[in-house]
Amino acid sequence: MSQLGTKKAEVDLPVRTKYEESRRQKTGVFFKKKVGWLFIIVSILAITIFNFYPMVQAFLLSFQSGMGANLEYVGLDNWRRLFGDPTFIAALTNTTIYLLIQVPLMIVLALFFSVLLNDPKLKFKSFFRIAIFLPCVTSLVAYSVVFKYLFGIDGIINQFLLNFGFISQTINFLADPFWAKVVIILAITWRWTGYNMIFYLAALQNVDKSIYEAARIDGASSFQQFFQITVPMLKPIILFTSITSTIGTLQIFDEIVNITNGGPGNATISISQYIYNLSFEYTPDFGYASTVSYVIVILVVILSIIQFRVAGEKK
Amino acid sequence: MNRLKQIFIYTFLSVAAIVSIFPFLWMLVSITNKSVDVTQGRLLPGTHLIENLKTLFATVDIVPALLNSSIIAIITTFLTLLLASLAGYGFEIHRSRGKDIVFTILLLSMMIPFAAIMIPLYRMFGSISETAPLIGIDSLGAVILPTATTAFFIFFFRQNTKMFPKDLVEAGRIDGLSEIGVFFRIYVPTMKTTYAAAAIIAFMNSWNNYLWPLVILQSPEKRTIPLLISNLGSSYSPDYGVIMSAIVIATLPTALVFFLMQKHFVAGMMGSVKG
Known about the structure:
The complex is a heterodimer. By secondary structure, chain A is mostly helical. Helix content of chain A is about 75%, strand content about 0%. In chain A, helix 2 crosses helix 14, helix 4 packs parallel to helix 8 and helix 11 runs antiparallel to helix 14. Chain A is globular. Classes of the chains: A mainly alpha, B mainly alpha. The interface between A and B is large, with 92 and 88 residues.
């Protein structure tokens, strides 16, 4: 900052000696080249200290073991332990299930909504749009707690199903390994479908209306138009949202902790929750927890490479 | 056939809208009812609102939590806007090959899952707790620092800077403004909408952040709103009316921001794909 101050003062000087002038130009050139770095240096330092450095640390930790601060290098032991660890296998399986069911379900729903809402003749359009987007304003913890109560044994969903005769006795959704997963998938879908829909709606605005016009004249049905025009046109944005959603779901934590806390048993535990438990709930084992965390890193890196490849193809 | 299609479309959208809105309605109705009524599935507004709020403020430390969350969110948002816009501007206006390489490297940090770095971060803040308690474990400073600078916002500002007229920078220089002067006197006022959009997203991220505060904050009086709600939600004999009141209060700021600034809200969201 002080450097920049002096520069301004120099510019303001009305009379300069030849020596001063040449000096000013020299520092001026130097300054112009380097001043750009001043704008970014703090961010570079912060991201290095708080992102890259911990990343390296976690990698080193993944080869260490021990309780709390007493860590020692154990080579590949942690990595071997991974494959025989039933909780890790459960966490990985659950996270994969969430991914494979929730992401496609949400993307298809979001696409569907955006196509319907893009129809210029539709009435109450902005009401529908705002309603479907509304879940995005809730915090992950807040909506998770709400969902936990909605699906509780004396929750409103059970009473609704009972009153309308869909079930004859209450279902303890959150204590059942299958239903607990269903609730989590429903919750995430509720929270994020509107978010993705907004991306598709924005993309649809850029699609030339005359293409649909032509398709209709050629006798294409709504379904044909959807699959043969809309989906291909939106392909880049569909891929973008699929991959961001996948990376998000891979790291899922808030919902699991606050809806089921990983239970019943480990039926809903996610990888992130297992890492948290290993570090802060059980006897802390930072080394092994870091090993588990690197599994997420590896998965995210693979997915991101795919994303960059796809984005590259677009250009 | 066409009529059938119409009916289908409106039914489908209405169901979606009801499903989306229902939890909100239920929350709003529940804060006016007794806990017993909530568990009995009452869906009509009651008269227990004042009572619930009184109990909430008397039995739950929601005021300190609101304060903590506000302090953290405001400082984080301010730092994010300042640092990310400086960087985004620097990368775009003072573009060079070296900086482009650095930019690409910084973007890589967006791939880093938080769960992977939270343990080293926790140890890092633990190791400085003794010498710098203000940014050590269990301090608001420690919540703010790692979240204040993210590559996403640098990317966001850089993308938006592409639309900033570069002639203005030259004009400022000719008028005798320093480089930093050009930034603060010309760039910042011109980019108000970009700042607004970024502020909304940064504030929401910070206000709703759960995992990192959960890791780094320990004493109950330091708790942020999400930690408080999570805690209430896991209690064995929950008072639903009271908990719902806390949730509604926690959701109000972000809901208000959304309704008052819808355009900026969506612009902020879309920031990552534009251009």
